[in-house]
Every structure is written in C-alpha cells, then in structure tokens.
Amino acid sequence: MAARTGEQFLRGLKDGRELWVGGERIRSIVDHPALSGAAHALAEVFDLQHRHAQDCLMADPETGESINVSHMIPRSREDLQRRHRGLERVAEFSVGLMGRTPDYMNVTYAGFAGRSDEWAVNGNEAGAANLVRYQKKLAREDISLTHTIVHSTVDLAKGKYPVGFDPVQLHKVENTSTGILVRGSRVLATLAPFADELAVYPGGPMPNAADVHALSFCIPMDTPGLKFICRDSVAVNTNRFEHPLSSRFDEQDAFVIFDDVEVPRERLFIDANLDVYNTVMKTSWWPNIMQQTMIRAQTKLEFAWSLATRMAETINSANQPPTQQMLGEIAMYAEFARAAVYAAEQAADALGNGMWSCDGRPLAALRAALPTWFPRVNEIIRLIGSHNLLTTPARAALEDETLRPLVEKYLRGVGVDAEQRSRLFRLAWDFAGTALGSRNEQYERFYLGSVGRNLIAAQTVALADRARANRLLDRFLLEEWDDTRQVAPQHLASAAS
Q1: For helices 77-93 and 103-114, what crossing angle results, to 10°?
Q2: Pairing verdict, β 349-352 and 355-357
C-alpha cells in the first residue's frame, strides 16, 4: 500500500478499540457527533497529499511507491527544504491548530530510524532493528500514529518520573511466549480517536527508575487491554458557519490505561533497558522534530496576524496607535518564527549516521518563546475584538426574513456585510475564546515542555557553541592592565596642550 486516501483512512478507524468520551464508549468514531468533524478533517489531510503530490509525496527509496515526504530520512539540506514544503501544506490545512497531524510522528520515526545507531547500544541491537523495520511499515502503510510519552501525575513531590518501581506508571510485568506483558498508565495521547496505532517512547531520562519502566514500542489502537479515556469534546457543533474551527479541528486528548497489554516482540524497540531509554532522546530527536513543530507554529502565528488585522479593518480600528501596536506585536512573533525556521534550515548539517537535521539553536529559542507568545496572541485578538466577539448572529438569524434587514443595518462592518462580519468574528472567537481556543492555549503553554524547561533547553543548546560569546567577554576579562601608567585619551591630551 502506498500513500492512503481519506476514504481509506476513515475505513481504518472502524476497529474495536476501547475509547471513551464522557461515560460513553464510542462505537463509531467516524459517525459520532463528538468526533466525526475531526475524523473527516483528518481524512482531508490524507486527500491533501494527493492533491499536492509534488510537495507532499516522494518515492520510497526501496520500493518506488509514493509515500508522504514526512517519512523522509533527510540526507542533505535540500532534503530538509523538500520536506519543509510538505510539512507546510499540512500545517496550512488546520492553520496550525492541530499539533498532532500524522506528519508529526512520521518525522519522529524517520529521525529514529535515521539514527538507529543511537538505539543499538547497550545490547539493544534487536530493538534498533525492529524500529527500522517498523518505520518502513509506518511509511508504506501510511499509518496514522500517535504517542503517549508523559508519565501519569499522582504526586509531583516525588518528581515527574518514576523513582524505583511505581505500579501506576507503565511497566513491564513479564515475558510471554511472543513478547512482553505491560501494565500501567500514560498521558497524553492526542489524536487517540483518529490514530491507527499508538507509540511509546522516552519523554525524558528517568535516572532513578526501575528498569521495568524503560519501554518503547508501537501497537495497534485496538490491542486488547488498551483503554483510552478522552477529555470532554469541544466539537460542540458541526455547523461550520458558527463553529468554523471547533467543528473540525478538535484532535482530542486521551488518558491511556494499559490493562495487561501484550506487546509482540517484533514491536519492541526498548525492553526494560534503562541505559538506552535514558540516552536515545538526547541528541537527534529535538533538531529533527522541531522543523515540523515550528513550521506549524509559524503558520498559526501568520494566521492569527491576518485574523487580528482583518478584525481591526472591519471595525475601522486598524489605524489607531494602540491597535497598530498590538498588530505589530503579532507580526513580530510571526516574523521571528519565519526567520528562526529559515535560519535553522540554512544552517542544517549532518547529524550523524548520514542523517541531516536543522540547526537546533534558533528552533530551541523559538520553542522557549512560544508558550508565552500564543497566550498573548489570544489576548490581543480578544482585546481587538472587544464586545464585537459577542455580537455575531447565527446562521438562522441571518436567514430569517424579518431579522436579516435589521442585522444588515446594525451589524455590518466597514466594507463587508453582516454575514461576512459575523463569519469573521465567529472565526476569531473560535480561535481564542471558545472551548477549543482555551484547550489550544493550554496545549501551547506546555507543548514540548513548560516555559521553564524550554528555557533551560535553549540555554543548553546555546552552550554548545559559545565560542564567539566567550571571545567577546574574554577580551575584557583577560586584558592586562598597567595601573601605574595613566594615558589620557588623545583628544584630551591635544586640548590640554
């Protein structure tokens, strides 16, 4: 099978997975009102790769079949630029609102396979070989993959990672004749209703954990014993006029319970090997995956800038200095994001084992800024929108013969009729003010780590290349002074004479 269509993707969701929304076990993901909008939106992503095949598809290096470009293992700067175009197409579809479209995990596993040498240490050669084979399967079957890599929070006083053995956290129970049995829990399986398979891999080192917690594998979503408990759906209405974003872009988030789940041996990448678990994510994962994440962020910021500007133009406030300043702030964020991605790709280099990646420094800095930028963008949209965000007639009101003339008279905008004004401000409210807007703001605050962790990571990346910074500083710290000689500046000496 090569790159799938949307129809093929939707057929793949008809399995026996145990997925709950509220107190209801979902029997049909494609048809349920809480999930159908996003299911069909993801189907459009699969169709998109065929509509824009020049950007989104490439030939499998071994079979020649068409696969998504996000499965590429980059071997040059040109490969990264080629991958950029495909990633940008997907990001534009949801204007950056969906953080876990399948290309995210495609890029992740391409990076893992490209640096399989990092996995084949401390006796884990078999696990690394399994991973390489799985990455080919992922690409050739065009699997929609999600992950769950965060440990469940029970008592943060004990830290974010298991200390010794913790029965709440995902762990190996025993070997079986065909693999291993695992038990425990993980968060946060974003995209759980719309994925074909689930990945487990390290979210960070666990220096004090028991070996049984050190696991990595991929299994189908309908594997017996897997249970997904979703948060409340924010797809409150399938009417795209009234809910243009939340009706289709609620990618969902789920708590995952492994209730004695058997993992086949050929699906195991790390089997209770703490040394491997604690090292594989330290070098190549960040610069590889951040190309995808920061292209998404740039796209979302550019959309927000246009949205806020159009709102201001519609109520004729775009030329007022306070509004100009706020619009300029979003424009600044968007430009910094664009420049960071461009700089990272231009300075790309070989990362090892023949794989290339972006320069991680500008992307690490951008990643550290986004958890504060995105909430501020939402605030600006709400400030510019003011009460206008709450005066948006529904489609039914606009279609009413009695109300429509009155609405057109009193709720039109500058250069737009009442319907276009309502569409615009409903779009802004769905972006920044509805349940979807709040969920996405919370998501961005902790996306790939908190502000503190991101700043520490940015500093760590910067420390790798402080040569110029140190030279600028050491000029003053290492300069020798002769305090017995007082030499006046030349222009003062001339004036005295």
Answers
A1: 160
A2: antiparallel
Q: CATH homologous superfamily for 285-471?
A: Butyryl-CoA Dehydrogenase, subunit A, domain 3 (1.20.140.10)
Beta bridge partners of 230: 21, 254
Q: How big is the CA angle at 202 (ends 196 and 203), to the nearest 5 degrees?
A: 95
End-to-end CA distance of the chain: 90
Tokens, residue 424: 């615009």
Which stretches of 394-463 are DSSP H helices? 395-399, 403-410, 418-432, 435-445, 451-463
Measured in whole angstroms, the distance separating CA 445 from the mean position of its chain's CA atoms is 12
155: Cβ–Cβ under 8 A, 6 or more apart, which residues?
Answer: none
Residue 468 Cα distances to 75, 81, 283, 324, 473, angstroms: 29, 28, 23, 37, 9
User: Cβ(363)–Cβ(294) under 8 Å?
Assistant: yes
Q: Which CATH architecture has domain 6-277?
A: Beta Barrel (2.40)
Tokens matching residue 257: 């319970």
pLDDT in tens, the chain (497 residues): 699 999 999 999 999 999 999 999 999 999 999 999 999 999 999 999 999 999 999 999 999 999 999 999 999 999 999 999 999 999 999 999 999 999 999 999 999 999 999 999 999 999 999 999 999 999 999 999 999 999 998 888 888 899 999 999 999 999 999 999 999 999 989 999 999 999 999 998 999 999 999 999 999 999 999 999 999 999 866 788 899 999 999 999 999 999 999 999 999 999 999 999 999 988 889 899 999 999 999 999 999 999 999 999 999 999 999 999 999 999 999 999 999 999 999 999 999 999 999 999 999 999 999 999 999 999 999 999 999 999 999 999 999 999 999 999 999 999 999 999 999 999 999 999 999 999 999 999 888 766 666 676 666 665 567 788 888 888 889 887 766 655 555 555 555 44
Asked whether the beta carbons of 362 and 343 are under 8 A apart, the reply is yes
What's the token pair of residue 150?
């965060």
Q: Which of 59, 54, 89, 88 is nearest to 71 (CA)?
A: 59
DSSP state letters, 390-410: G----HHHHH-TTHHHHHHHH
Element (H, E) at 228: strand 226-230
| DSSP secondary structure code for residue 127 in this structure | H
- Dist. CA 387–CA 264, nearest whole Å: 56
Residue written as token pair 């320069």: 359
The domain segmentation of the chain, as residue ranges, is 6-277, 285-471
